[in-house]
């Protein structure tokens, strides 16, 4: 029997820690953030935009690389233990599966076309739009390394 004051939320958090502790430790996430991370993942809380903005600054000279700047909203007071944020991304894929996913995953082609400023209306995937997305997506992609292979995300 559970102790007084112990509820399902505590049990859910305990299970979260059991399942993810190794990954959290290896990623360098301090334990002070784990409860907040669990709450945000469980509730799908994407509140980063309430606390800061991320913008890409294009350099005027061709030789310089673009930079990313983060601007924090000064009105918000820091809240230790809660200052961890989920950042959503549009699509993670492996190159060899990208075309098939664009054709088969409902809504994916429409979302990617819209993100890239392309006109696409309709429900049926259009091979021409798929080709355009596959050509243009490299302007938006970021990469990360998995334990086996490389994945890209937009």
TrEMBL record:
GO cellular component, one term: cytoplasm
Matching Pfam families: SET_TTL
Signal peptide from the UniProt entry: none
Tubulin--tyrosine ligase-like protein 12 SET-like domain span: 70-151
Source organism superkingdom: Eukaryota
PANTHER family, A to Z: TUBULIN--TYROSINE LIGASE-LIKE PROTEIN 12
Protein name per its UniProtKB record: Tubulin--tyrosine ligase-like protein 12 SET-like domain-containing protein
Native species: Aquarana catesbeiana
Source taxonomy: Eukaryota, Metazoa, Chordata, Craniata, Vertebrata
């Amino acid at each position: 029997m559970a102790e007084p004051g112990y509820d399902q939320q505590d049990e859910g958090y305990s299970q979260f820690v059991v399942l993810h502790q190794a990954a959290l430790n290896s990623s360098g996430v301090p334990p002070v953030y784990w409860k907040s991370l669990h709450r945000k993942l469980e509730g799908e809380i994407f509140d980063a935009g309430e606390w800061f903005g991320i913008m890409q600054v294009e350099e005027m000279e061709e030789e310089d690389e673009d930079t990313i700047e983060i601007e924090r909203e000064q009105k918000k007071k820091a809240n230790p233990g809660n200052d961890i944020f989920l950042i959503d991304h549009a699509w993670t894929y492996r190159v060899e599966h990208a075309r098939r996913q664009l054709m088969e995953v409902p809504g994916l082609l429409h979302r990617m076309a819209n993100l890239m400023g392309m006109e696409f209306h309709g429900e049926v995937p259009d091979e021409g739009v798929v080709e355009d997305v596959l050509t243009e997506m490299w302007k938006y992609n970021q990469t990360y390394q998995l334990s086996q292979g490389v994945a890209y995300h937009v």
